[in-house]
Amino acid sequence: MKLFNNTIVDGTHTNSVLQNVLELADTLIQRGVTGTRKRFTRKNFVKLRWIKLKDLKIDDKYQRLINSKFIKDAKEFNPNLVKPISVFLRPNGDLVVVDGQHTCMMAAIYVEDPSEFEIECQVQEHPKDFTTEQCIAAEAKYFEQFNSSRTNMTGVALFRSQLAQNEPKAVQLEKNFKRLGVHVELIGADDD
């Protein structure tokens, strides 16, 4: 059983086949992906707030260096690509960006009136008795957990996205895969 079923007509992707999330999860569970189920409610999620850029701070003690080429190459701020920024509120009132510093930098550089510009943030509060050192340690741990658990886009994922957009080079590459009997992650020749 495939995890993703694409309808293919005349060797090209023509339709997407939507899959129900729970049915897809059941397939994974049948394949041995298991864990402990826990009950969660909305109360368990980090609260969202709109915060002005001028009120956000970045601690370089654990953050990556700012990639100025990445920011320059963006050429503009695109709010459609922005997810909430991960922020911690320290007992002294500082709002510290733990994930999303490049998004903040793009906004600060490319939006009009950046001092009044607000961005959506997930705000976690440190315990009121935390010292600055304890805050830094907790933020660094979160930074590590968050960034080590993310999956960056692989070349195959990019290829799959380009196929869905019917980009000519990707479509031709898939045709070549099929002609050669090659498949990569369910792209190309049948995976029987």
Short description:
With 192 residues, the protein is an alpha/beta fold. Helices cover 35% and strands 20% of the residues.
Structure overview:
With 192 residues, this protein is an alpha/beta fold. It is 35% helix and 20% strand. It is built from six helices and nine strands; from the N terminus they run ββαββαββαβαααββ. The chain has helices at 21-30, 68-74, 101-110, 132-148, 155-164, 168-180, and strands at 7-9, 12-15, 47-52, 56-58, 85-89, 95-99, 118-125, 183-184, 187-188. The strands form three sheets. Strands 3-7-5-6-4 form a five-stranded mixed beta sheet. Strands 1-2 form a two-stranded antiparallel ribbon.
Task: Please tally the helical runs, counting DSSP H or I stretches of 4 or more residues.
Answer: 6
Radius of gyration: 22 Å
Which range best describes the helical content: under 10%, 10-25%, 25-40%, 40-55%, 55-70% or over 70%?
25-40%
- Helix and strand sequence: EEHEEHEEHEHHHEE
- The total beta strand count reads 9
Task: Indicate the mean pLDDT.
Answer: 85
Main sheet, how many strands, which sense, barrel?
Answer: 5 strands, mixed
Key traits:
35% helix, alpha/beta, two-stranded antiparallel sheet, 6 helices
Q: In terms of topology, how is this protein built?
A:
Layout: E1 7-9, E2 12-15, H1 21-30, E3 47-52, E4 56-58, H2 68-74, E5 85-89, E6 95-99, H3 101-110, E7 118-125, H4 132-148, H5 155-164, H6 168-180, E8 183-184, E9 187-188
Parallel strand pairs: 4-6, 5-7
Antiparallel strand pairs: 1-2, 3-7, 5-6, 8-9
